[in-house]
């Protein structure tokens, strides 16, 4: 099967990689040649570090990068049997890409959106009615090359056979899919952000430091990473964006804490080259 991924950012590039590791030819699209070049370099670094070899056969890891073809023309997606949209978490941005894919992809092509919060039936609105049966959500987790879970979310119009086919495809590339109802935030992010919000409130109230709360979650709850270290990796900016969406959908229980908003506004959101919760805490 030839698969396509639209969006060569952190998530999109690694989604392309895991399909390639699973033996599929992959087209990775971005409008920017620089973004495509950076994505391929990042994937080469992942393979060079041997991360993929922990989860895939050595021969699969060696051959994977050759199966990923960067393309800057969206029309190339006409060759694909499955295309995953992995652009910015915005209804407008995703809707524009999905509308364009609806025009260029084959009628039998499955379209999937890698969204972490946006309802699939809402994202399906720009698609032609006949395409909606072959559209669904596939929420991967970062880093995609190491995290095996994928939430599979059918929309109102998604054909059940398409859901079953997608679950089979994901199992074939080493992922563990779980079927989730189409609601804002799905399942994992609702649980996660309830934890993150409470963790930030504990810091606001002076109950414990971010570093100590990370230790408490690792040793007391068995989490592989603490909430503040996680926010530093995925960025507090993204966490705030997700919590705003959840707050709109569910009300007061997901209101972003004031301290999180202040830190994002102050440029302390974490991520590459920026201070975050743990670094700032260590600096006093």
UniProtKB/TrEMBL annotation:
Site (Important for catalytic activity): residue numbering on this chain: 139
Domain 3-hydroxyacyl-CoA dehydrogenase C-terminal, chain residue ranges per copy: 185-278
Keyword terms, alphabetized: Oxidoreductase
Domain 3-hydroxyacyl-CoA dehydrogenase NAD binding: start-end pairs: 2-183
GO BP annotations, alphabetical order: fatty acid beta-oxidation
Statement: the UniProt record of this protein carries the keyword Oxidoreductase: yes
Coiled-coil intervals: none
Family membership: Belongs to the 3-hydroxyacyl-CoA dehydrogenase family.
Protein name, entry field: 3-hydroxyacyl-CoA dehydrogenase
Organism: Sphingomonas hengshuiensis
Lineage: Bacteria, Pseudomonadati, Pseudomonadota, Alphaproteobacteria, Sphingomonadales
């Amino acid at each position: 099967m030839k698969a396509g991924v639209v969006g060569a950012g952190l998530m999109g590039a690694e989604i392309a990689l895991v399909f390639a590791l699973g033996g599929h030819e992959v087209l990775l699209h971005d409008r920017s040649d620089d973004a495509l070049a950076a994505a391929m370099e990042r994937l080469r670094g992942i393979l060079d570090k041997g991360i993929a070899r922990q989860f895939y056969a050595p021969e699969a890891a060696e051959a994977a990068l050759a199966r990923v073809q960067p393309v800057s023309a969206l029309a190339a997606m006409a060759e694909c049997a499955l295309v995953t949209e992995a652009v910015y978490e915005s209804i407008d941005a995703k809707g524009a890409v999905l509308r364009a894919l609806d025009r260029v992809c084959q009628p039998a092509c499955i379209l999937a959106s890698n969204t972490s919060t946006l309802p699939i039936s809402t994202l399906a609105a720009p698609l032609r009615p006949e395409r909606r049966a072959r559209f669904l959500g596939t929420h991967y987790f970062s880093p995609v090359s190491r995290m095996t879970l994928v939430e599979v979310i059918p929309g109102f119009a998604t054909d059940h056979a398409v859901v079953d086919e997608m679950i089979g495809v994901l199992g074939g590339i080493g992922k563990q899919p779980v079927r989730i109802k189409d609601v804002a935030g799905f399942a994992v992010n609702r649980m996660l952000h309830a934890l993150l919000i409470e963790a930030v409130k504990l810091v606001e109230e002076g109950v414990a430091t971010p570093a100590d709360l990370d230790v408490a979650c690792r040793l007391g709850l068995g989490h592989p990473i603490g909430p503040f270290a996680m926010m530093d990796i995925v960025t507090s900016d993204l966490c705030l964006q997700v919590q705003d969406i959840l707050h709109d959908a569910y009300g007061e229980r997901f209101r972003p804490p004031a301290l999180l908003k202040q830190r994002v506004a102050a440029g302390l959101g974490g991520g590459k080259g920026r201070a975050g919760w743990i670094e700032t805490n260590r600096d006093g």
